[in-house]
Amino acid sequence: MSRPKTLRKVVAPPNFKGYRPYGTNVEANESVDLLYEEYEAIKLADYDLMNHLEASQLMGISRATFARIYETARRKIAKALVETIEIKTVYGDALLDKHWYVCGDCQTRFTIPKTIKEQQCPLCKSGNIELLNT
């Protein structure tokens, strides 16, 4: 029996639902699912320029696990670029750092500070919000 997966700590969810290739005649039948933890690995290593040890400690996983997640993310992004297919973000095995919400009307992602009692979207003031990290 294998060990249960440890949830990977993600500071914030991606600010997008996906990316679609522009200017191709290819039908969008296929897509690549980029997990939140894979997005976080790419962000930490390539955007924030952290080394694998620092990033793995921030995510609460081993360096080897971080390297595997990072490699998987790079391969998925490369496949999407070369084969001109859509990239979609998927929750996966992530543990969000705070309670993140998404507005059902304007798709804004946000947190609600503990000092605020009413739960509504800060952008459009809609009450149609959903908790992301359930």
Keywords:
alpha/beta; Arc Repressor Mutant, subunit A; 2 domains; three-stranded mixed β-sheet; three-stranded antiparallel β-sheet; globular
- CATH fold call of the largest domain: Arc Repressor Mutant, subunit A
Oligomer: single chain
Strand order of the largest sheet: 2-4-3
Percentage of residues in helical conformation: 25-40%
Question: SSE order, as H and E?
Answer: EEEHHHEEEEE
| CATH class category name of the largest domain | Mainly Alpha
Q: What structural category do the secondary elements indicate? A: alpha/beta
User: Which term fits the overall shape?
Assistant: globular
Protein architecture, described:
It is a single chain. With 134 residues, the chain is of the alpha/beta class. It has two domains: 1-96, Orthogonal Bundle (Arc Repressor Mutant, subunit A), CATH 1.10.10; 98-134. The protein is 30% helix and 21% strand. It is built from three helices and eight strands, in the order E-E-E-H-H-H-E-E-E-E-E. A three-stranded mixed beta sheet has the order 2-4-3. A three-stranded antiparallel beta sheet has the order 7-6-8, with no helix packed on it. A hairpin with a 5-residue loop joins strand 6 (100-103) and strand 7. Helix 1 (36-47) runs antiparallel to helix 2 and helix 1 (36-47) packs across helix 3 (63-82). It starts with 7 loop residues before the first strand and ends with a strand.
